[in-house]
Design brief:
291 residues; alpha/beta; TIM Barrel; eight-stranded mixed beta sheet; 38% helix; 13% strand
Length: 291
């Protein structure tokens, strides 16, 4: 069943041309990209008005072809050796207090791009030491040495999305493994307790509330402390159909349930995405961990 008409709670305002123009001028004109634009995020307008953006490193072409994702797939080009430096410059020019860095999946690289993540973290720290840094990483195909490389650069937050419940992995996350992704988060929490581990889920693909609760329990048991939950929206007719539009009140129930299961901070809502209000979530999380 496909759904085309959006319910009222999923309709967003158009982005501010001036804010978008500034972010575009300091990212795309430098040869950089944001996942906000490449993945057609519905919050691009709101986030740009708050001077927030999530940088997309390692090119714009993914080696996987997940049924939910709008980022193009194929054979990527070699990484840009100047990318980390240029992102750090953009962070300072935009005056970001919290920088989020993600990437396409690069199964063609021996380390999956881990060294570029680490270099980007260090470059940002060198020019903007007060800026907190969050990375949203792929699974590195279970290469735990690659995970060590990223963790050694000490990001404030390491995010890896489970995306959906185990039953739906076969057609939602082809090439990925639920247990492998969970193990990545478990290893991160064990590597360095100062790194906050975070994950994200999409709903509306046919999962049940019981399955969501089971995933949250798995995350808590793995040491994950932050979670985002948002509505899956079909980017094009060629992508997976939406099975259900989840109403806002149900997101509130999902959040309450996740907190009761031991998650420290949860952002849940129809338009919530992995890096939505990421700096605010980090501040709330740190306050919660201190209490």
């Amino acid at each position: 069943m496909g759904m085309h008409r959006l319910p009222p709670w999923l309709r967003t305002r158009l982005p501010s041309a001036s804010c978008l123009g500034e972010i575009t001028g300091k990212t795309y004109l430098r040869g950089l990209r944001t996942v906000c634009r490449e993945a057609r995020c519905p919050n691009e307008g709101e986030c740009s008005s708050r001077r927030e953006a999530t940088f997309l490193i390692l090119g714009d072409t993914c080696t996987r072809n997940c049924g939910f994702c709008a980022v193009k797939h194929g054979l990527p080009e070699a990484p840009d050796p100047d990318e980390s430096t240029e992102i750090a410059r953009s962070v300072t020019e935009l005056g970001l207090k919290h920088a989020v860095v993600t990437s396409v999946t690069r199964d063609d690289l021996p380390d999956g791009g881990a060294a570029v993540f680490a270099a980007t973290i260090r470059e940002i720290r060198s020019v903007a030491p007060r800026t907190t840094v969050e990375v949203l990483i792929p699974d590195f195909r279970g290469n735990w040495n690659a995970l060590d490389i990223v963790a050694d650069a000490k990001p404030d937050v390491l995010n890896h999305n489970l995306e959906t419940v185990p039953r739906l992995y076969g057609f939602v996350r082809q090439g990925a493994s639920y247990q492998r992704s969970l193990e990545l988060l478990r290893r991160t929490a064990a590597l360095d307790s100062r790194i906050i581990t975070k994950s994200g889920l999409m709903v509306g693909l046919g999962e049940t509330r019981q399955e969501i609760a089971a995933v949250v329990k798995d995350l808590v048991d793995a040491g994950c402390t932050a979670l985002t939950v948002g509505q899956y929206l079909r980017p094009t007719p060629q992508h997976l159909p939406v099975r259900r539009f989840v109403p806002p009140e149900e997101f509130a129930e999902i959040r309450s349930s996740a907190l009761s299961l031991g998650m420290i901070e949860v952002a849940a809502g129809p338009l919530v995405r992995s890096s939505y209000k990421a700096g605010e979530i980090l501040a709330q999380l740190r306050a919660g961990l201190r209490d």
